[in-house]
Design goal:
Strand content of chain B: 5-15%
Radius of gyration of chain A: 41 Å
Low-confidence stretches of chain A: 1-6
Number of helices of chain B: 5
Strand content of chain A: under 5%
Largest sheet of chain B: 3 strands, antiparallel
Order of helices and strands of chain B: HEHHEEHH
Mean pLDDT of chain A: 87
Low-confidence stretches of chain B: 1-12, 122-130
Shape of chain A: elongated
Structural class of chain A: mainly alpha
Number of helices of chain A: 27
Number of strands of chain A: 5
Distance between the termini of chain A: 108 Å
Radius of gyration of chain B: 16 Å
Oligomer: heterodimer
Strand order of the largest sheet of chain A: 3-4-5
Number of strands of chain B: 3
Distance between the termini of chain B: 27 Å
Structural class of chain B: mainly alpha
Shape of chain B: globular
Helix content of chain B: 40-55%
Chain lengths: ~625, ~130
């Protein structure tokens, strides 16, 4: 090889020497291919051809030096064979092409480690490029909110004739009682937190409130008798009636009102709709329950009866908006009516006439909670969410969208949901650049729109199928929520992310329904027992004696399908179900059991609590 | 003056695609006789094929490097002569590959001859330029 020229700078000599030579102190610059060409003393046109080929090859220094040396030797051999420079150049061909071909061939000669690194890097870079392009592509498409599901939700309220709408009357009653959603330190607030029964020193305070608001309570009964609630719900606060805003304690600034004017269908998400009426209707139910008690203690059977009928009316109004939360509130309100019947009969067994007792049974029978309506509402809410979270390909499918509204991206939404659930609300993915890069991965992990919808539908249909069966037939079946666990792997739980977030805990709901229905069975049996007792002046030996004269048929224990347990304790009837644990605890109630399994709370997988469900007793009304 | 066969311009040249398939086999065949450096190989190819398989030098070296990458040939630098030269020789793998390809070319030749496309090699070469 060509020795380093004395005129070379030290740095150049180091650069063009092999590392092992540098380490030995030999700065021979043997990798300097230009020196190799220059030292060969070829005719200028041949030296130029070699230079072009080697330059074009863009190889490593050692490779270039080897190629240069070989080509120099080639041309020197040709010249030595008396071939002219022109002939050699013609035979050699295009130097540019040669450089490229030599580059490819030499690179194939490199080590396997280099090949792995090089093609691995190329592949990774290619995938990254595709990924980023996919992210940009996904960021450019927006969901199309084509169906106004809020209108579907409000259809019953909007269809109600003005003169049949109960809400304005309720509102007047609430306002006159000082009852609103910001209530603190008011008589109404004190009343609603007072659980004292008659005889308790604090009962007097309740009675005082009730007596001071008799006119308003009469208005509650008037409202409850109307056919429709007529409360139109909206997620846009400025669209709430001004009087309602006062009732709900909504204070809006002029800027907020102005901003609301620009809200579109995109801002009318069913899940974000305001349902402040439900809390007040529930309060109305509690006031009517207490008033029934008050009236009974005062010997006013007519008012007590009217209060209970009104409770059923309030319950019916609460479920006007077809949402599960509304139906659950309706069920809760109805439980106040069941309590009131039991309490009145415990305190004043002869207060109501036989006709009133029979009519009460019929009123309860006609006021069945429409759980299916609530489940249909959940479907509406889910459909609405899917059209906001996914794009629409026109065939019912689509992919996750980044921008789900004018001012919120998907991850900000999820963070706010997490925050609402008690988790941290901050997210680094609020940064749109990072969010954009996350989208392709999110779309790979999370199910498509169609699959998400199908999964929700399947789960909901399965829940409805179970609801139509007696509970004792389905109670041993696997939990409904376990079907979501079929997705394995660390990211599996994200596959049906939105189903997991939005699907009601149907297993909880089924328990809630069976307990609620059992409670109503208790009212039927209690009323029938009272009628039997009035006629026979004794309690029946068995519940079967109640049918068919006082009951078309005697309800069975909904947990087992067997007859309900019945016994007389201190000359008072006690009717109970064995409860969720399925075993007879001799009428010992589940401690502290309120029977409230909310469809939105995590399912408890512990064994059910020991104890029975007391469906009817007048032994201890409290 | 010694005129290399390769530079005889009136000889038939194979089409590029056909040459691409034939050249590696031809190079390996020449190397099967013993190791050769680049220019020597060019001369041998042109001479032995009467110029028909004259490989352009801009493609010969990439071809050699590719064969080396596949392990069919190996090379060494000899610095003992007038100038440093890189000699190429066939590996065992190269020999097996050459044997396989020779069979294939023979089969192809037979097929062409059956179709009346090919005659005797010498006839073909002799008449090829006209």
């Amino acid at each position: 090889m060509t020795p380093a020229m004395s005129s070379d700078s030290l740095l150049r000599r180091i650069y063009y020497s092999r590392l092992r030579d540098v380490l030995r102190g030999r700065l021979d610059a043997r990798l300097d291919w230009r020196q190799i060409v220059a030292a060969a003393d070829l005719p200028a046109e041949l030296a130029n051809a070699v230079t072009q080929v080697v330059s074009k090859s863009r190889l490593w220094r050692s490779e270039k030096a080897a190629v240069a040396a070989e080509l120099v030797a080639h041309f020197q051999d040709g010249l030595e064979a008396s071939v002219s420079s022109e002939q050699l150049l013609t035979a050699f061909g295009d130097a540019q092409d040669a450089g490229q071909l030599i580059r490819r061939a030499k690179r194939r000669n490199r080590s396997a480690a280099w090949q792995l690194w090089h093609y691995g890097w190329m592949t990774a870079a290619g995938l990254l490029l595709v990924y980023v392009m996919a992210g940009v592509w996904m960021a450019t498409s927006r969901p199309s909110v084509s169906v106004n599901y809020l209108e579907v939700l409000n259809k019953p309220a909007l269809a109600a004739p003005e003169n049949e709408r109960a809400w304005p009357i309720y509102r007047d009653a609430f306002m006159s009682m000082g009852l609103n959603l910001t209530k603190t330190g008011t008589p109404a607030a004190d009343f609603l937190t007072n659980d004292a029964p008659p005889g308790d020193p604090k009962w007097n305070e309740k009675e005082k409130f009730l007596n001071a608001n008799l006119a308003a309570i009469a208005k509650l009964r008037e409202a409850a008798a109307r056919s429709h609630l007529g409360f139109v719900t909206t997620p846009v606060r400025s669209e709430v009636n001004e009087k309602d805003r006062e009732l709900f304690g909504m204070v809006l600034t002029p800027e907020e009102i102005e901003a609301d004017k620009h809200k579109t269908i995109e801002d009318r998400w069913v899940l974000s709709t305001l349902l402040p009426d439900l809390q007040l209707l529930r309060d109305a139910g509690r006031i009517l329950e207490a008033d029934a008690h008050r009236a009974a203690m005062a010997g006013d059977g007519g008012t007590a009866y009217a209060d209970i009928i009104a409770i059923l009316g309030v319950s019916r109004h609460a479920e006007e908006a077809p949402l599960l939360v509304a139906v659950a509130v309706a069920d809760s309100i109805q439980s106040f009516g069941r309590n009131a019947v039991r309490d009145v009969l415990a305190e004043k067994p002869s207060l109501w006439s036989d006709v009133q007792l029979r009519d009460l049974a019929h009123q309860f029978a006609g006021a069945k909670i429409d759980w299916a309506r609530g489940i249909e509402g959940e479907r509406i809410g889910f459909y609405d969410s899917m059209q906001r979270l996914y794009t629409d390909n026109g065939n019912g499918d689509g992919r996750l969208a980044l921008r789900i509204s004018k001012d919120q991206n998907l991850f900000q939404l999820l963070a706010s949901v997490n925050q609402a659930g008690g988790g941290p609300g901050d997210t680094v993915l609020a940064n749109s650049g990072l969010a954009l890069l996350t989208m392709p991965a999110a779309n790979m992990v999370v199910a498509s729109r169609k699959e998400m919808l199908e999964t929700f539908e399947n789960a909901t249909n399965a829940a409805q199928a179970r609801m139509s069966e007696p509970y004792w037939k389905v109670r041993e079946q696997p939990l409904l929520e376990t079907f979501l666990d079929k997705e394995q792997g660390p990211l599996g739980r994200f596959h049906y992310l939105f189903v997991r977030l939005m699907l009601p805990a149907y297993d909880n709901l089924l328990k809630r329904i069976v307990m609620s229905n059992s409670g109503t069975d208790g009212v039927y049996i209690g009323l029938a027992l009272e009628l039997y007792h009035r006629q026979h002046h004794k309690w029946p030996e068995s519940l079967s004696e109640l049918a068919p004269q006082w009951l078309p048929e005697v309800p069975v224990d909904r947990i087992t399908g067997q007859p309900l347990h019945y016994k007389i304790v201190d000359d008072k009837p006690l009717v109970y179900s064995v409860g969720l644990d399925g075993d007879d605890d001799n009428g010992r109630a589940v401690p502290g059991e309120k029977g409230v399994w909310l469809p939105w709370t995590p399912l408890k997988k512990d064994p059910p609590e020991d104890g029975d469900w007391i469906l009817w007793t007048t032994a201890n009304s409290n | 003056m010694r005129i290399n066969h390769y530079f005889l311009g009136d000889k038939m040249k194979l089409e590029r695609e056909l040459m691409r398939g034939a050249a590696p086999t031809a190079v390996m065949q020449v190397l099967s006789a013993g190791e050769k450096y680049g220019y020597e190989l060019v001369e041998a190819l042109a001479r032995q094929s009467n110029g028909v398989l004259g490989v352009g030098q801009s493609t010969l070296y990439p071809l050699l490097y590719n064969l080396e990458a596949k392990g069919l040939v190996t090379s060494r630098v000899d610095e003992t002569g007038a100038r440093p030269r890189r000699f190429y020789r066939l590996t065992q793998l190269g020999r097996r590959k050459l044997a396989d390809e020779t069979k294939q070319w023979q089969a192809l030749w037979e097929a062409f001859r059956s179709l009346g496309i090919a005659g005797q090699p010498s006839t073909m070469l002799a008449g090829g330029a006209r």
